[in-house]
């Protein structure tokens, strides 16, 4: 299999230590220059791997702050714009994922469910 490599970022692109380490685990060893940061030493990630990394870091990472059991509090998809705020040290990394994958990060949890319309019995007769 010699499919052309379609890497968009590498582990060196990230500023956050945790993201960088995880990117090294998920990424593929390749000496090509990264199209984003220009480094050749980083492990390369294609869109699929980047999505996996983002999911592990932002979605499952947000479990730590969850008081409601095992529901993730942060999600991302291609239909939403980013509406969460992250610490400044994470801002650039989040934007990188956002722009590379064309996704938005948003809160996903019990508070949203409460906002959904619920059918209530109409007792007025
Ligand atoms: Zn890079």
Write up what this structure looks like.
This protein is α+β, with helices and mostly antiparallel strands. It is built from 4 helices and 4 strands. The radius of gyration is 18 Å and the shape is globular. The chain starts with 6 loop residues before the first strand and ends in an 11-residue tail after the last helix. The protein binds zinc ion. Residues 9-10, 12-13, 34, 36-37, 39, 42 line the site of zinc ion.
Return Rg in Å. Answer: 18 Å
Order of helices and strands: EHEHEHEH
Shape: globular
What is the count of DSSP helices, taking H or I runs of 4+ residues? 4
Unreliable residue runs: 112-120
What is the tally of beta strands? 4
Please state the structural category: alpha+beta
In angstroms, what separates the terminal alpha carbons? 71 Å
Per DSSP, what share of the residues sits in E-state strands of 2 or more residues? 5-15%
Ligands bound to this protein structure: zinc ion
Number of domains: 1
């Amino acid at each position: 299999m010699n499919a052309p490599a379609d890497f968009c970022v590498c582990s060196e692109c990230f500023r956050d230590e945790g993201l960088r380490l995880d990117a090294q685990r998920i990424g593929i060893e390749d000496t090509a220059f990264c199209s984003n940061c220009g480094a050749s030493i980083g492990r390369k990630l294609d869109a699929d791997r980047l999505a996996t990394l983002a999911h592990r870091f932002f979605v499952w990472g947000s479990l730590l702050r969850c008081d409601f059991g095992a529901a993730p509090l942060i999600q991302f998809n291609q239909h939403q714009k980013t509406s969460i705020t992250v610490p400044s040290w994470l801002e650039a990394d989040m934007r990188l994922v956002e722009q590379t994958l064309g996704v938005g990060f948003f809160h996903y949890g019990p508070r949203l469910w409460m906002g959904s319309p619920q059918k209530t019995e109409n007792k007025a007769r």
